[in-house]
Amino acid sequence: MTIFLERQTMAFPQQLLDGYRAFLIGRLRHEQDRYRGLAETGQSPQIMVIGCCDSRVSPEVIFDARPGELFVVRNLGNLVPPYTPDGAQRAVSAALEFAVQALKVKHIVVLGHAQCGGIRAFVEEATPLSPGDFIGHWMALIAPAAAAVGPRGDRPLVQYLTQLEQASVIKMLDNLMTFPWVRTLVERGALALHAAYFSVATGQLSVRDPATGTFTQAAADDYTRIFAQPRF
Ligand SMILES: [Zn+2]
């Protein structure tokens, strides 16, 4: 394997080198003390975000987060498999365990988004991209959410996908509650679980209101003020 990698001809991406240079003269210059402090004291983020791998929905960008503020795990479809202590190598469970038990985060936000390719692959029963069909097996985790939403019927595809994307986020909160130490802390009021949804096209963020169970646009007044079209 190593020999093969030594023979590869494509260099480290220039885009990343350029981005790193911009980071050096921008963010690092402004936040060097913060980085040093975080290196000495360790991280202590209060919030964990479970988001999608999708390149358009970076939680640090959407929430304008600085280093050390968000503990992020990203995977296809922003999913959380239910608690399964079977000894298998479980990436989300390991990140969750670290965030809750070691970092003692106060909030876990599951961040769904519009036009999610993972959700769409599930709905369209996409042909496996490789013999392992990793996407198909992974996205099967949203089957309970799909059952809750019901058959598509006459619903336009975009509307159905949106409903499923949002139902899936809520279902992931249920899955989080299957972890005994998450449930205990939530019941004690020491940990809160939240569902949020980002619309890629508009940049609107919706947060689920626990009282009503519906998604409500966050910072709606600011959004309207900043993006309202001039009337004349
Ligand atoms: Zn996605």
Task: Give me the secondary-structure topology.
Elements: H1 2-7, H2 14-41, E1 47-52, H3 59-62, E2 70-75, H4 91-102, E3 107-113, H5 117-123, H6 134-139, H7 143-149, H8 157-177, H9 180-188, E4 192-198, E5 205-208, E6 215-217, H10 220-227
Parallel strand pairs: 1-2, 1-3, 3-4
Antiparallel strand pairs: 4-5, 5-6
The chain binds zinc ion (ZN).
Zinc ion is lined by residues 52, 54, 77, 113, 116-118.
Biggest sheet: strand arrangement: 2-1-3-4-5-6
Helical element count? 10
Q: Structural class of the secondary structure composition?
A: alpha/beta
Pick out the low-confidence regions: none
Range of helix content: 40-55%
Tell me the series of helices and strands, N- to C-terminal.
Answer: HHEHEHEHHHHHEEEH
What are the distinct ligands in this entry?
Answer: zinc ion
Q: How far apart are the first and last residues' alpha carbons, in Å?
A: 63 Å
Descriptive report:
The protein is α/β, with parallel strands linked by helices. Helix content is 47%, strand content 14%. It is built from 10 helices and 6 strands; from the N terminus they run ααβαβαβαααααβββα. The chain has helices at residues 2-7, 14-41, 59-62, 91-102, 117-123, 134-139, 143-149, 157-177, 180-188, 220-227; strands at residues 47-52, 70-75, 107-113, 192-198, 205-208, 215-217. It has a 6-stranded mixed beta sheet with strand order 2-1-3-4-5-6, covered by helices on one side. A hairpin with a 6-residue loop joins β4 (192-198) and β5 (205-208). α7 crosses α8. The longest helix is centred in the N-terminal third of the chain and has 28 residues, at 14-41. The mean pLDDT is 95. The structure holds zinc ion. Residues 52, 54, 77, 113, 116-118 line the site of zinc ion.
